[in-house]
Structure formats: structure tokens, C-alpha cells
Amino acid sequence: MKQRLEEIEQRTEDYTKEQFGRLYATHAKTIESYLRSCMELHKSVPLSSLKGEIVGRVVNSFYELSPETQIEFEHKWQGCELPLTRTFIQLRPDKSTSFERSESRRLLIGSEVNLSQGLDSKTQVTKGLWQQLVSAPYMLSMVEQDRSVEEKEKEIVNEENVRRKKRWIVILGDSGSGKTSFARWLVRHLAETFLSNNQHSTDFASLRIPILIRIEEFAELLSKSSSLTLFDYIGKHTWMGKAIVDDQLISLDDLSCALQDYIKQGQALIILDGLDEIPVSDQRSKIINIVENFVGTYVQTPTGRCVFDNVHLSRDFDDSSQSGGNQLIITSRIVGYHVTPLVGQFAHYTIRPMDKNHVKDFIDYWFYHVHQQIIDMLNLSKDNQGKNHGEVLKQEFEKKENVDLLDMASSPCLLSFVCSVAFGQTNGSPLPTQRIELYQDIVDSMLNSWSTKESTISISKLIRILSDIAIHIHQNLASGLIHEDNMKEICIQSINAFLNENLNNNEDLSEIGNQANEFVRICREDIRILTARGESLYGFLHLTLQEYFTCLKLTNIDQLQQEKLPIQESSSENKVHLVTQLLHRHTNDPRFQVPNKLALSRISSCWSLDDFDDFCREFIRLEDTSESLLPVGAFLLISCTNDLVHYPSNNVLFDALDHLIIAAGQYQWSLVCPFLFDRISIALGKFRNNIVSLWINNLLSRSPPPNIQTISALCYLLQGTPGEFENINWLDQSSCSILQSFSTLDNENNQFAIDRLLIL
């Protein structure tokens, strides 16, 4: 059998070389023009998040420009292009099974039978279908979470090996994970290889002509010409509305003939980008059938096997490195793909989050090329300082406390924005030290490109819309996905509230509707903060962004006042009361743990110190009316102190700590829930200055003195973890003397807590 396969491969290779030469001789001029156009179309991706004044300031610090040159440079700066000369994706075999894919396909087909019942029924069926796909037990492995998890090294598959060994490939990934950038890089790489040496094979597989198709553009043309096939479309296809060949001497008919000949002879790599990005839901099944028909007809092994044949018969032939036979790569978002998966034995892979090494490589790549474009613009003869500039950011990812940052930067899209923020830091710190300020800078960087969309929606209105959508998802949708219809409703409500008036004339209502449609369109077409995750389903690019905008909603006073909450105080008191009540409403909801902490951080940054103190006092005392094992307000404030931009006054911090230590003594935490002492110890260990020592002294020296239960709880806190003595450092000489005076209260009921502490 092995000898027979080798003979087949040798005959096929000889035949392929002969056909390759004939094809190239026949279409040389057309193919060379096409490949040059591919290299031009896919040479780079724009970076619109860098502003001229920021770049000018950074350039001056690294390359010492004169004031006149710096000003001139800032005016000329139009943005930056990041070249597509390498890819940063890593793949893992997709966890979904063939059973799961066939079940989701069966569910879709079964539901479509009911679509003819009318528009209302059709909408209900579509919504119900998506809900089942997200929640059904057999689909659990398909629900990808934003928070990455550590994976075994053996699960990681190099994309080069995939291209070497597989003929029929499906690559799945969330928005911003690098699917399209990978497809564009691969087209550019193959085109450059073909033109540079015109050899028969590359370093990974038989050399094939790359053909990149955007399924969304094919679907748009299909809606106008229902009989169009994918094969007929090739050669007339576009990329982002641009013609594939910008050469008046090359006609579309000549290009179609050339590319179709390469496909007929098995000399093409066809990449179908965005299989799930079909704007009209009725077209989904039709396009899937068109794709499957094309694959079954034109993407076969040299011996005529196709992906839909029996897996046991075709397994030995699924090898793209064999000479002859086209190769196929399909990209799609995860959720969108599984509603209409392809049948057959496709090799499915999911783009995994970038690991630390890939993150560092990307940072080097990003900073080097941004600096190189600056050097080229200024015609400088100085060394590129990009590596030195990015080194400090790479060091940030080595810090244990920045594990959340590494998670957020695990996709190329988000990491690029993190690089943009770090690029503009000139105060010696690579990133803002407080989480709320870092997230603010990242979001601002992402919003900088909004003005380039020529949108009628202002930035402030956009933030309002995103905040309303974020809190709706956070409160009601555990999947993190919102349906397009619901999103439009929230969008219209947000715009209405933003205008702060009731609009009754049709023209104004029509304009609001147009803006809502425009918002949805931009979310669907562009990867930014909120993005399409599947057909009519949208979600934030990362959970952190959802939490940040939820925080904005929780702290936006104008919005809270418009919602007419039952609070009638005036000015500052009204503001404090409104926000306190809203945050307190979510203190016991685990999903709001991060948004509440971010909200406290934002308040500490934006409010006056007096208002912040008033807020903290009211937030702490909301628990006083009920018997509570844990004063949640005080615990939340102390837990997030390290995230605060500005501390409240010492008296406020002392008040919060008093609430906690009194509850600890009253409810005997040392016996009931000793882990709470560990949580508080960790928080106190992050306090700045000597605040903890000052609080202990203040607590012990007040009159009347605290009761023995409270003093015992304090001693338990200071003892810390057995064998460790870090907490004892909070106890100064004065506090030790006061504790010594209380030792007469020690007895077996409090397990002689004071004596046990003082002998440490």
C-alpha cells in the first residue's frame, strides 16, 4: 500500500509540474499582475489610534527633534500602517465534535421549515434557534469564554503544520483574534514567494495560487444574482470593495479565466474569509450549500477523494503537501459557525489566546515598525529605538499582579491598543498604574478611530449607548451576547435619553432610528469595542470592556437622574445618594464584583475629595440597618483600595476597618469564616504608607475602649497565617503597650488571644 501511494505521488508530482509550467506560460502576464495586486492589497493594516501630538512628543524624546520639526511632523502625521509580514496566531484542535456540528446543522434545518409561517414567526424561530445553540447541553464545548485558561502544550498546533498536513481547514476565532489578518498575511506570503522565485514548492506545501474571498461580498452579489456560483465569482471578486487587479490592461474576463484554470488544474489555495458574516439570515443555508458544492467539486485529492467521502477511505489522502489538488481554508467566528457548520471531515481549529511569548514578539514587532515608519517619514539616519521603547511594556507582562492585563492582551486587536497606550506614556511608566486609568486610556485609543467612520453619532453619545448595552448584558445575559433587535431598542432609548427631550415629530424619530441602524452597521462591519459574534448576535470584544462600560453606567449621574430614581435631595447629596444606592443594589451579585470596584476607582478619580468621603461613609453605613456577618460596603471599599486613584480620608478608612473588625469579633470569624481574615490581610498589605498602623493605634486608644471580642479579632488578624509574621509589623510600640494593658481581659473564652499575639 505504501509503495502504491508513493507511485501515485510521484506520477502526480510530475504531472503537476508539467501543468504548472503550461498554466504559467498561458497566463503569465495576468497572474503576475494579480499577484502584485495581492501584495499591495494585503501589505498592511492601519493603526488609527495614534494621534499626531502624542507621536510627536514621543519622537522628540527618542530622536531629539527641533521644535519646528516636531510641530511640522505632528501636522503631517496621518496615521501608521503595520505591515503584514508575519502572523501571531496559534491553533488548537476545536473541542466540538462531529456530533455537535451535525446536531446544530439539524437544528437549523428543522427550524427553517417553520420560517414560512410569517415574519413574526420567522423572527421568533431565529431568536429561539440562537438561544438553543448557546444553551443546549450538547453545545457546551462550543461556548468560548473571554477569560483564557492554561492549556497543555500538546494541544497547541503550529499554523504552518496545519497548512502542511491538512487539505480542508476551518479556522475559528472570536472577533479580533487575527483570522482575517492571518488570511491576508498568507495571501501576501504566497504571492511574494511565487513572484520571487517561481519555484514549485514553498517551505510548507505545494505552491498554489492564493485566492481570498470575503463571503460577505459574495453574499451581497448573490442577493442580486441568485444563480451566481462561487466558481463563477472567482476573478470578479473584490476585497473591501476594491478591485482585485488594478491594471487597465488586464480584463476581469482574463483574470477569471486564469484563476479558474488554476482551480481546474488543482493549483489553487482558496481562502473563504468570514463564513458566518452573512448579513441576510435567509442566505445562510443557501451559501453553505454553495460552498459545499464548490468544495465537493473543486477541492479534491489527486485521486479524486473529497471531504464528504468516507473518512476511513480518504484519511490517507488528506495531505496538502502532496502535489496536485487544491487546498481550502475557511475562517469564521466561533458562535456564528456552529449555527450552520459544514458537514464532512473538515479539520477544525480554534485560535487560542496569545501566550506571553507571542505577546512579547508582537510588542517588538509593533514598536519596531511604528518607529521605522517615523524614521522613514523624517528621513532620519538614526538607529531604530522601537525595541528599547517596547522593552518596558514587556516587563509589565512579567509581573504577577498584571495577570489580568495579560489576559486582556491575549488577542492581536486588543494588544495593539495596549501598545498604543504604552507608546504614548512619557512619564517613565509604560502603563497607567491604576486599572481604571488603564482601561480609560485603552478605550480612548479604541474610540480615536470612530471619527474616521464619518459617523453621525458623537463620541459622547456612543459612550452612552455602549454603557446602556453593557449593563443590560451584565444584568441579564450570562452568555455575554445580545440580539440585534434588543440592541437596537436600547440604542434608540439611549439616544432619546441623551437628547434629554421627547421627540414626537416623525423626522426626529426617523433620525434616531437611522442612528441606531448606523450603530449596528458599524458594529457588524468593524472590530472595535462591541462587535458581531454571530448572526444577529453581538458582544463586547472582551469581558473587561463590558465591565468598564458597566462601571460608567453605574457612575453616570446625568443618566441616573434622568431615570428618575426616588431620590429628591439636591446637588452633591443627590449625587452621592444616587450612586450609593445603585452600587449597593449590586454588592451581593458576583457578576458585579469587578464593575463595582471599577466604579469606586472612577469615583475616587473624578469626584472631589469631600464628595468621595461622603460617598464612602454612606456606602459603608448602608449595612448598619441589618445584622450582617460581613459588612459588604466596608469590605468592598477595603478590598479595592489598591485600585483607587485617590484615597479617602484616614477617618473614612478607619471607619470601614472598624466595621469589619467589630463584625469579626461579634460573629467570631476566627471560628466561622477564618478565610475572611486572609482576604482582609491581603488587602491591608497593599495599603500605602502606614495607614494600618495608624488605624490600630486609633482603635485601641479611643474612649471607651473596644470590647474584648473586637480586640481578640484584631489579635487574630495580626497573627496572620501560621509561620508567617508579616502582619505583626503593623503593630508599633505604642499599640503593643495598649494591648499589654488589655491582657487582664484575656481568658479561655477568647483563647488568650492577646497573650498569644504578644509572645510572637
UniProtKB/TrEMBL annotation:
InterPro entries, from UniProt?
NACHT_NTPase (IPR007111), P-loop_NTPase (IPR027417), Sigma_54_int_dom_ATP-bd_1 (IPR025662)
Q: Which Pfam families match?
A: NACHT (PF05729)
What SUPFAM superfamilies does the database record attribute to this sequence? P-loop containing nucleoside triphosphate hydrolases
Q: Which domain of life is it from?
A: Eukaryota
Q: Which PROSITE patterns match?
A: NACHT, SIGMA54_INTERACT_1
Which residue numbers delimit the NACHT domain?
167-278
> Which protein are we looking at?
NACHT domain-containing protein
Name the source organism. Rotaria sordida
